[in-house]
Structures are given as C-alpha cells and as structure tokens.
Amino acid sequence: MQIRVLALLLLCVAFIGGCGAQETIEEKKTVKIGIMLSDVGLGDQSFSDAAFQGLIKARDELDIQFDYREISETGDYEKGIADLVKQGNNFVVGLGFMVQESLEKVAKQYPDQQFVLIDSVSEAANIVSLTFKEEEGSFLIGALAGLKTKSNKLGFIGGMDVPLIHKFGAGFKQGAEAVNPKAQVAVEYAEDFGSVEKGASIARKMIQSGVDAVYPAAGLTGVGALKEAETNGKLAFGVDSDQFFAAEKAVVSSMLKHIDKAIYLICESMVKDGKLSDKHIELGLKENGVGLAEVRILTLSDKEKEQLDKLTNDIVSGTIKVNVK
Predict the structure, then answer these.
(1) 264-283 pLDDT, tens per residue?
(2) Are 42 and 52 in contact (CB under 8 A)?
(3) Which of 247, 186, 248 is nearest to 222 (CA)?
(4) What is the pTM of this model?
(5) CATH, domain 32-132+259-283, list 2.60.40.10, 3.40.1190.20, 3.40.50.2300, 3.30.70.100
(6) Which of 27, 47, 20, 23 is closest to 35 using CA atoms?
(7) Domain 134-257+295-317 carries which CATH code?
C-alpha cells in the first residue's frame, strides 16, 4: 500500500514538474519574423543587404528565427508576403515603399497579423510604419560635397522620381548650399534601382558636364554611378550603408541609414513585449537612425570638422530644418 502511495506521489510530482517545464517552454517560445525584401533583393550592396545584417544580429543575439522572400523568386510582393504570413511568423516586414500596396492588401486579409512597413507610412490598423529622416543625413553629405567640390557642380542621381527619393536630393542640395552658396546640383532620376549600367551612364553624362562629385540614392544603380566616378577620378558619396568598398578611390563617405539597427530594434521590442506598440517610428540624426560613415580619401581641416559638427548639432536641436522636397 505504501509503495502505491509513493508511486502516486511521484507521479503527481512528475506531472506538476512537467506542467512547469511546458510553461517554461511556452514562455521561451522563439519569435519568428518574416521579411519581404525590396525590389533588387540581396546583393544590392545597400538597403536589402543592410536589413539582412540586422536580422542576422537579432538571430544571434535575441534568439529569433527569420525567413525572407525576394521578388525574383515569388514573382510579386503580394505572394511573398502571403507566404510569410502562412509560415506563422509573429510579424511580417515589408522592406521599401514599393511594397506598400501589396502589404496593405495582405494585411486586410489577415487582420490579426502584425506587419511592419519600412520607408513609407500606412494607415492600416495592423501595420506599424518605420521611416527615416534621410534628408538629415543627406544634408551632411551635401555639406561635405560643398566643402570639397572644385567645380561647384554636383550631381544627385535618384532611383525613382518619388517623394522618398526627393528627401535625399533635397537634403543634399540644402547641405551643399549651406556651406557653399556657389554650389549647383544637377538632378536626374534613373527610374531603376537595379541597373549598374544606367547608373554609370547617368554619372558619365554629369561628369562630362562638369560635375566633380556625385551622390546617388539608387540602390544597385547607384553602385554603377560610384564606379563611374572612380573611373573618371571624381568624388562620390554612398548611401544607406558604407559603400566605400564599392569604389575605394572615389567614395569620400556614405549617408548611413541604419536599417540594420531599426530591424534589430523592432525584433528586440517583439521579443520583450510580444507586440509593436508604436504606430509610427521615425528615426533621424537625434535617434541615430541616420548619420555619416567614416570620411576617407580626403582630409578635413579642423575648421571643416567644426563646421560639420555644428551643422549636425543644429539639425539635432532643431535650429536647422532640413527640406524634404
């Protein structure tokens, strides 16, 4: 009889212990994240690659799992986003303004699913918008270009003629003029984020017209412009990530758009709280969402460094308002 009672007690203890273990497992349930990459996808040496690095860091440090889709494999954004929802991800990210329409369609079909739209603002109830103040970082790039140009002719190459890209160009122009009233900025839109050849062709024409520094905000198309500047012995400025290694003899600095940090931030929030509470997250110089990469190739004088530091502080404090168009 005593043996039976002991066995029953042990069974109860095991059952209670098992419940506790199950609860512990549930508490440590891994967060799963899906991301629909922007049009060029991995290998763009810019936006998508930077976002992917943020996911890798979150996987290694926060123990998340992630899956991704590229339009080259899905054929369209909507299918890729829907696939990621069906995979059971806790939230699904649409990377880039071109994803917005498709993301909103899928979000409407899955009202209980959490989504994140990067680089545009959505009014959908289940979509969190994350944007950057690209104009602020571009202002500093423009200031650098304005200080170092010899011809007073600069070039801006946009991937598309859309409001997001206008922010890069407007900030660049304002920054150049702030330090060099004689600076002129030629502007051209490639209408393509994935053509190295087109970027090179546009940069070549600008250089032939007297431009001695180019700033492309055009993904892989922009890489073509950087390389063309290098070929012709001109200056260039990268975008989104540090693009020095794309053209080491030309790239003075890059406008860093910390998409990797933003991706990590939302992953961290999801792991901690199980949801994304903010409806719109906007990151600028003050929030360390944008900034400058290391200045290479050229040496800045102490006076020039002081100028850049003051401009940065004035933007952060609100003394300088940077144009968005």
Answers:
(1) 989 998 898 888 778 999 99
(2) yes
(3) 247
(4) 0.86
(5) 3.40.50.2300
(6) 47
(7) 3.40.50.2300
